Amino acid sequence: MNWKKTRSIGKELRKKKSQGILNLYSKGESCPTIASAYGTTQATINRIIKENGGKLRTISDSVMGIAKGRKRSIENNKRIVESRKKNGWFKNPERTKEKISKSHKGKHYSPKTEWKKRHKMVRTKKHNRKIGLANLRRKEKFGYINSPETRRKMRVARAKVKYPKVDTSIEVKIQNFLKELGIEFFTHQYMKIDLAYQCDIFIPSMNLIIEADGDYWHGNLDKYGSWLNLNKQQRIQKIRDFERTAQLEGKGYTVIRLWEHEIRSMRTKQFKKILYQNLNKEERVNNFMELLKDLEVKIG
Fold this sequence. Notes:
Blueprint: H1 3-26, H2 31-38, H3 42-51, H4 59-64, H5 74-87, H6 93-104, H7 111-118, H8 125-142, H9 148-159, H10 169-181, E1 186-191, E2 197-203, E3 208-213, H11 221-224, H12 232-250, E4 254-259, H13 260-264, H14 268-279, H15 281-299
Parallel strand pairs: 3-4
Antiparallel strand pairs: 1-2, 2-3
Helix pairs in contact: 2-3
């Protein structure tokens, strides 16, 4: 069969199905009933009605009888309103409160919950000051807030937790570059150094660490101009970055730190060039030292 003919037959069938759904809906049938009749979902029925210019009924329309095509007279509506007022069907906060209090009489919560209901705990500046003083006293008495053993346990537990949970856009871009180049890598690898942390990207085959540093969070001096323009958190982070890089290089790792603005405008070729320039740095230094030795021999 010709595919064009098959396509036209499919269109006709869909049109007939839509028409049947609209007819049932106009007769007052509900969307769930139509959905079960056609063996589809209610969402599909709603979509077909909307696409064909139909208006979906509300629950109040169904209750009022509009769904079945019935219309109430003004007198009938007035009677319903009056009866609702008498029976308390209308919203009445005071009456509702009375009913709830009556239904809850004789019921009791646990002693702990009862105490919480009577004593609302609000953390004020006074409370925070007390907690801070307690920590200071502990530090004066024992020389620490958390014991070395507690800190060790916290470090071990933190090493297993991925932080942050979502990779930044610049980290994802670097990951995509590495995938294009077919280089195997790990993200958020825990590095056991004095300032232990999880690096952004680790390439084991090259013993290489790549850090994608945000211009704000890591205090890019090209952007802020001077160390004096950085806030306290940026200064602390810069010192940490410097110390971590030094510690990692001391352990034999190669560290590449890339700034956010560089990554955003970077292409795969540029990244590849930076990658291999940094990797061949040691080789170039060794070659230069050998060249100097040769020159000394020749001059001597």
